[in-house]
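Allow me, if you will, to draw on your knowledge of protein folds for a short while. I have a record of one protein: its chain in single-letter code and its fold written as discrete structure tokens. I should value your view on which stretches of the chain appear to form regular backbone elements. Thank you for your consideration; the sequence and its tokens are set out here:
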Amino acid sequence: MTRPRDRWTELTGGDAGEGYAERFARLAAAGQDIHGEANFCAALLTAPARVLDAGCGTGRIAIRLAELGHHCTGVDIDPSMLAVARRDAPAQEWLHGDLTHLDALGLEPGFDLALAAGNVIPLLAPGTEATVVRQLAATLRPGGLLVTGMGLDAAHLPLPEPPVTLPDFDHWCTQAGLTLRHRYATWSGDPYQQGGGYAVSVHARPTT
């Protein structure tokens, strides 16, 4: 039986790394803040913390968090994205892997925070979402945080319709032993309103 491909690969063909990096370089050159996700996560942590950037892409967030004093490991399924990350930060740890099989990458457990930004959850292979959430939860120390950002409508996704709902996602988190701590509408911390098109969620693993 053929395993379904992740939605990201279906959309990009797996060669979007350089274009993705150039897009954010243009935004930065235009004076836009491209570090919202990193700043959000840094506010939840005390340096030096261990951070797993799941679906790290070109490493934009993990590189910034490392600059802020954290120890970051990036994992991505797209070699073209990882090529950019390795070029820009060769001393950091970048792993090529499928998030449904994080346990096969030899990661040392006990991360303080696992991050899945940039619509990672909605762009997973159909039917693998609960498995990925469970794998991410398993990497966390007691009290560790899972931070996610995802579009909930077509305006916030590169898809015609959202494949994931917040109730679905919260259910997967509950199954993985995580509890919702906070939910926002943006990485700047704007309050989330029911029915909003984007959600930044902070779930926690119990301390005991």
Remarks:
- The first helix runs from residue 7 to 12.
- The chain has a mean pLDDT of 94.
